[in-house]
């Protein structure tokens, strides 16, 4: 197929090997795509982004933390519970229910796919994620951060009325977040593309949650959400 020199970086006495040796020709298009995916992903990694003490990595980790699933689920769960107990505006409550439903669906879908595909993370990943799931987060495909950012962007654009500059940010941010996952060595490009596609689909599907789900939840969990207003 092609020959590529071994690419080795040394940082803090740790050798990070991106690829090895000589690639033999193959007629299998899937194998070729797999090789391209690995090569292009490795070429996008910034060396300083792998340094645990570099400013670039700290910025990328802040981006990583901002889209971590657990804080989003906890915050949206608390918000929805408070709104339902206070019998807040039904339309706004419905939007928060869609948000929480979407976050849970995303977590389940990404986890199932990761465990089923079981694609290892890049060998140069520093493996310094916090609050990662014991099993699913060991794997790379698809990118959960990418799917979550795409889903949240779709929901924000569909359920809110942001100003034009916010609309632009919401459309660009998922792609920047996805690129950051490759640059810091967490994922391959195909992981990110799959995650963005999955998140886009989730964002449109979860909006089908009917508004009648709110009173149903209140009737089913009166201890948690209180009784419905007469």
From TrEMBL:
<dbReference type="Pfam" id="PF01569">
    <property type="entry name" value="PAP2"/>
</dbReference>
<keyword id="KW-0812">Transmembrane</keyword>
<keyword id="KW-0472">Membrane</keyword>
<dbReference type="InterPro" id="IPR036938">
    <property type="entry name" value="PAP2/HPO_sf"/>
</dbReference>
<feature type="domain" description="Phosphatidic acid phosphatase type 2/haloperoxidase">
    <location>
        <begin position="96"/>
        <end position="207"/>
    </location>
</feature>
<protein>
    <submittedName>
        <fullName>Phosphatidic acid phosphatase type 2/haloperoxidase domain-containing protein</fullName>
    </submittedName>
</protein>
<feature type="transmembrane region" description="Helical">
    <location>
        <begin position="96"/>
        <end position="117"/>
    </location>
</feature>
<dbReference type="InterPro" id="IPR000326">
    <property type="entry name" value="PAP2/HPO"/>
</dbReference>
<keyword id="KW-1133">Transmembrane helix</keyword>
<dbReference type="GO" id="GO:0042392">
    <property type="term" value="F:sphingosine-1-phosphate phosphatase activity"/>
</dbReference>
<feature type="transmembrane region" description="Helical">
    <location>
        <begin position="65"/>
        <end position="84"/>
    </location>
</feature>
């Amino acid at each position: 197929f092609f020959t590529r020199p071994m690419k080795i970086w040394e940082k803090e006495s740790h050798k990070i090997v991106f690829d090895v040796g000589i690639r033999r020709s193959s007629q299998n298009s899937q194998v070729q795509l797999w090789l391209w995916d690995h090569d292009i992903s490795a070429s996008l990694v910034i060396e300083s982004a792998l340094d645990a003490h570099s400013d670039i990595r700290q910025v990328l980790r802040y981006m990583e933390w901002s889209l971590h699933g657990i804080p989003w689920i906890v915050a949206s769960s608390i918000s929805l519970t408070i709104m339902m107990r206070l019998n807040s505006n039904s339309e706004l409550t419905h939007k928060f229910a869609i948000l929480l439903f979407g976050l849970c669906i995303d977590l389940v879908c990404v986890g199932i796919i990761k465990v089923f595909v079981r694609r290892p993370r890049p060998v140069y990943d520093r493996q310094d994620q916090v609050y990662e799931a014991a099993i699913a987060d060991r794997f790379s495909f698809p990118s959960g951060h990418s799917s979550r950012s795409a889903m949240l962007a779709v929901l924000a654009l569909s359920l809110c009325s942001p100003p034009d500059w916010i609309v632009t940010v919401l459309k660009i941010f998922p792609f920047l977040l996805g690129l950051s996952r490759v640059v810091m060595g967490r994922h391959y490009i195909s992981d990110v593309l799959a995650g963005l596609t999955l998140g886009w689909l989730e964002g449109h599907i979860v909006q089908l949650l009917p508004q009648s789900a709110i009173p149903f939840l209140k009737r089913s969990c009166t201890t948690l959400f209180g009784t419905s207003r007469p």
